[in-house]
Design goal:
The structure holds 2 protein chains of 2 kinds. By secondary structure, chain A is an alpha+beta fold. Chain A contains 1 helix and 3 strands; from the N terminus they run βββα. Chain A has a two-stranded antiparallel ribbon with strand order 1-2. In chain B, helix 2 crosses helix 3. Classes of the chains: A alpha+beta, B alpha/beta. At the A-B interface, strand 3 and helix 1 of A face helix 2, helix 3, strand 3, helix 5 and strand 4 of B.
Chain lengths: ~50, ~190
């Protein structure tokens, strides 16, 4: 069984977590609204095709 | 939007690291109220993104503009990327082969993505997985620590505007895994 041992790889601890990005919740609010709008639009288009 | 859960459960897993499965991430990306509630429920946890979850989330995106927005969503500062490099990948591969053999031995199909997510999760025994409760990750190898039900606004359902989303919080059980593995070698 391959279990994990924390150690330094390329100068960084291999279990070190880094934030996925710097976007704040306020920025994400706009992005989610936009994804929702576009996803609904695409779903309707796809339904029409089917 | 209503959440149904036991607050003592979420308190019991405070500060634990939670890998967010693709199905939950997809709802978070399209439903603001769900995202707010999800973030509030797990406000004292680290929300982790597995590289395969990121891939599953982005693949199949139909338009360039939607792809860009989904990439931007993944840059939310509440998320943490799980480590990903060659040395880990070798270990993930070894685990994946064992997981695939165990499922095959039980005559059960498992998707490649789920196999790889489990295999990476195995490298971090204290990490938990939060996923939609649809038997993707069964109690053959996991322990279900708790269930949280949260309403979410559906995208295109004709009669159900607020559907109930059940989320399981799971922990990989190495004793179960070892027992399954032992059975493999004796057959």
């Amino acid at each position: 069984m391959a279990r994990y041992q924390s150690k330094k790889i390329c100068g960084q601890r291999s279990d070190q977590l880094e934030k996925a990005g710097r976007r704040s919740f306020n920025e994400i609010v706009q992005i989610v609204k936009s994804i929702r709008k576009e996803t609904i639009k695409l779903t309707k288009q796809n339904d029409r095709i089917l | 939007m209503t959440a149904f859960y036991d607050p003592s459960f979420t308190k019991s897993i405070e500060h634990r690291k939670l890998v967010v499965d693709t199905n939950i991430l997809a709802i978070c990306s399209t439903d603001l109220l769900f995202l707010k509630s999800f973030k509030a429920i797990f406000e004292k946890n680290y929300l982790l993104l597995d590289p395969i979850v990121r891939l599953e989330f982005l693949k199949g995106t139909q338009t360039a503009s939607l792809f860009k927005k989904k990439e931007q969503f993944l840059e939310f500062n509440a998320f943490y990327n799980m480590p990903d490099h060659q040395e880990l990948f070798t270990k993930v591969n070894t685990n994946a082969l064992n997981i695939a053999r165990i499922y095959a031995h039980h005559k059960t199909e498992i998707k490649l993505g789920d196999t790889l997510i489990i295999s990476r999760l195995m490298l971090y025994p204290d990490y938990l997985l939060v996923t939609e409760d649809k038997n993707d990750y069964t109690t053959m190898l996991f322990n279900r620590l708790g269930v949280i039900s949260l309403e979410h606004e559906t995208l295109n359902h004709p009669i159900e505007k607020l559907a109930l989303q059940h989320m399981s919080v799971l922990q990989f059980d190495f004793d179960k895994y070892q027992s399954c593995l032992t059975k493999l070698t004796h057959n």
